Amino acid sequence: MIRGIRSELFKLRTSPGPWVVLGAALLFTALGIIVVFLVNHPGFGGRHHVSFVAPTSVYRLRRLLGAGFAVGGVWMAAIVGVLCVTGEYRHKVMTTSLLVEPRRWRLLAAKAVASLIWGLGIAVASLLLVGAMGIPLLKTQGGSVSALFNQAGAVLPGFFAAFALLALFGAGLGTLMKNQIAAVVTILAITFIVEPVFDGIFPNVGRWLPFAASAAVAGGLTPAAERVYLLSWWLAAIVLAGWGLVPIVVGYFTTFKQDVT
Amino acid sequence: MPIEVAGLNKRFGNIQAVADLDFTVSPGRITGFLGPNGAGKTTTLRILLGLVHATSGTATIGGRRYQDIEHPLRRVGALLESTSFHPFRRARDHLRMCAIAAAIETARVDEVLELVGLKDAAHRRAGGYSLGMRQRLGLATALLGDPSVLILDEPANGLDPQGIAWLREFLRYLAGQGHTVLVSSHLLAEMAQTVDDVVIIAGGRVRAAGPLSSLLSQIHSSMRVRTPEADRLLGVLAAAHWVCRRLAHDLVVVEGVTPDQLGPVLARSQIIVYELVNESTDLESVFLSLTGPQTPSTPGVAGP
Fold this sequence. Notes:
heterodimer; A: 261 residues; mainly alpha; 13 helices; 78% helix; 0% strand; B: 304 residues; alpha/beta; Rossmann fold; four-stranded antiparallel sheet
């Protein structure tokens, strides 16, 4: 099993898709950092010239730590999960993979774990970017780096868990749908259409959906006023894991076990 | 390890792709798996390799299903299609990816790349490979685990003549070492030079199986006669109860006779002959006779 996971990680490492996704996640993280510094400025909005101001409130410091999450980089983790599974079908390499590991549940489990690890990798890279870009900015603006570090304990466990579990969700969606483009479009639709609609109209339902659950898991990034609408972090973690594992199990029996012709 | 297929059936909806297939592939021999397009060859190979589920029956390698073999890449090498590579992945990385999962030393990756002549192209992306290079990379993947069983679907596809000759010698060497080799191909002339045994299927059923030499000896030879007196010749042949086919106004093929048998009859009948050719039986004619469309071949009946 360990070898299978290593092989799946090697596959991800030697194909361009996951690197493109990582690059996009870092781009979003960089934007997130800039937004955190900009939104504190009273002149933001055009009344005055735009300039950086150190984020001073606890909430803003937390947003800085979770910059990739704040601007949407987190759903890139879900896309990596999709690529990990659907790439096999898109590039017709499923035959080779099954010749190497014919026990399909093992292959799928290795893919799920590899997706989760790559999701964590995106979170780590995002955090390193905060260090490389956010801390110097904070220093030049006279902000407190130690205050930033003090927030890490409250933010990072949920931050990492949300990236990893969303990658698992992507792997589940990929297993269920097989078609890479359809699965990616579905993720974008859930993020930008389905969840906002539910949040607006049926918030009691919306909070059970994947990205709302991920926000609850990374609860430290959300203002207290908004947090009341979300599930508790532990329940959200179970729900988000369910959003990943249920499609994986269903997809295993409906698509992954199908004949490879 | 022998390959054993017993009572194998596969249905895709209303289509019976494989029907009651039975054959055995022995170690130390090269077995050709032959059949026309749609005969069920690829389906059978994919069932054998655990990629397609059989409707009923069994297909085993060394008595076990492929999916029950621990580290199958180290027991069975398979080449199924030349497009099974991520186009952006480098050839060496493709092999390393397989080696990692199958617990094969990385040094073996470089060995097989050299063996198939891809050492200099190892760091190129598979998407930029020619068909022949892809085929070599597929062979390298099959050989990666130094398996004792090889299952190759159209392995010569895209190879240049030197590559085909190398492959033939290599398969002969492996069979000589006691390996089990099952090869599917459309290149019948090439197969005739390579294989020891054949399994010929058509319509999902086995039409013939056994040593190639034995199969060839079972098929009667035929004589081709070019004559301006074809009508009279057909009458003579019908009287002798010989099976014949008229291929053109001056061309008749007589089945199941030797020159020694036909020559005296033609002489006695004083039929003018422009050409008399003994059509030696080869794998192609065996294949066509077993799998081709039914041609009229009744005594004395004219063709076109």
